[in-house]
Amino acid sequence: MSADLEKQIASLSGDIAALHLTLDNIGAYVYIKDLHGCYTYVNKMVRELFACPLEEIIGQSDSKFFSVEQSGELMINDRVVMEQSQTVEAEEKNIIHSTGEVRYYWTVKKPLFDEQGQVKGMYGISTDITERKLLDIKLKENEKLLDTVLNNVDAHIYMKDRDCRFRYINASTARLFGQQPDEIIGKKGEDFLPPETAADFAILDNKLLATGEKVSGEESFSDGKGNTRYYWSTKVPIKDEQEQITSFIGFSNDITELIALKKNLEVKANTDELTQLANRRNFIDQAEKEFIRARRYHLPLSLLAIDIDCFKDINDTYGHHVGDQVLKEVAAVCAANLRGADCIGRMGGEEFSVLLPETGGDAARVMAERLCRQVRDYQLAGPRKDAIKSTISIGISEMLAGDDDLDDMLIRADKALYKAKEGGRDRVCT
């Protein structure tokens, strides 16, 4: 053998050794297979994965090392490469026979050609992505769990960025807006909501962005069909390392029924149950406000004290159920003949009061006489409508310059009412 040839062989052997060293330390699994899927070369990482020396791997197929039934994509990808001469880049799942361990790889497989251009095998490089894949699986499981919770919780949950563009909405919020989530993501409220609704939502949003703190408050949403629902909303800022707001999460709970119940309770607290007029407390509250307004702006103000005549006789003769009916019908007749600005209330028993804002004594007397006439002429309902004829007596007081408060007017009206009673009833006295 010539010296030059020896040098070439030595150089080539060195190159091969360097190549082997490189492949053994490349940080990936490198291998070559023949057309039968048997290994003809594996690097150090493959040998360590299989826990076998090189001579026990060469000539063996994947079935010796992997659970092929559960790692079917390995065989499929190999056939695509060698039968169709295609490059395959794909994720593969391997289950190691010796340990039962599940590993995930990102694999690139390419065909290996002979001198005639015919496929004689394939080579592959696989990078272990097991840790990342398991984290991804865990993340997806957590996302699925979170989505299940968020989409089934009895609340509207959403996230907005600092420009108030939606980044997330749960199923409940999407149903409220009548759109699919992907139709809303990236949009602001004013892009798809009625202007008044968007403006209402913006109040708490802007307060959070201005203060940087959690905010809570009442919000309302109208569906455009006259149906309005009310929500108690809490919005929490999300901040970066510099304590700057990047986004915020909102939680809105439907309190429509609670609001309706509250309003109903307020109505009941302010309304006489039998006549549906303002009760004594509510009437006094409204009358005192009107008294202060009239005195401040030097406006006339009058008060009527009304009493149903001979009401005790009606109760004693026909029973309290008939008396209640008379109370309701007299109250309805009086209320129907008042102006919108006037206020009427039941003060107790068969006594009523009417406040007439911006009304002097003469006009108040005209109103009182009309009420007397309307009640006198009214035909009561029921089987005793011909037997029962109700009348009322009315006392009038007009606000005077020396009045200190509403009580002064109430006292004078009561005195005038007593005078009307003493004068024969069914009449008006000042």
Automatic annotation (TrEMBL):
What residue stretches are annotated with the PAC domain? Answer: 89-141, 215-267
Cofactor requirements of the protein: Mg(2+)
Q: Which GO terms describe its molecular function?
A: catalytic activity
Which SMART domains does the entry mention? GGDEF, PAC, PAS
Residue ranges of domain PAS in the record: 15-61, 142-212
- Which Pfam families does this UniProt record tie to the protein? GGDEF, PAS_4
What InterPro entries would the database entry show?
A: DGC-Regulatory_Protein, GGDEF_dom, Nucleotide_cyclase, PAC, PAS, PAS-assoc_C, PAS-like_dom_sf, PAS_4
Known PROSITE patterns for this protein?
Answer: GGDEF (PS50887), PAC (PS50113), PAS (PS50112)
Where in this chain does the record put each GGDEF domain? 299-430
The organism's place on the tree of life at top rank: Bacteria
Protein name stated in the entry? GGDEF domain-containing protein
Q: What is the native source organism of this protein?
A: Thalassomonas viridans
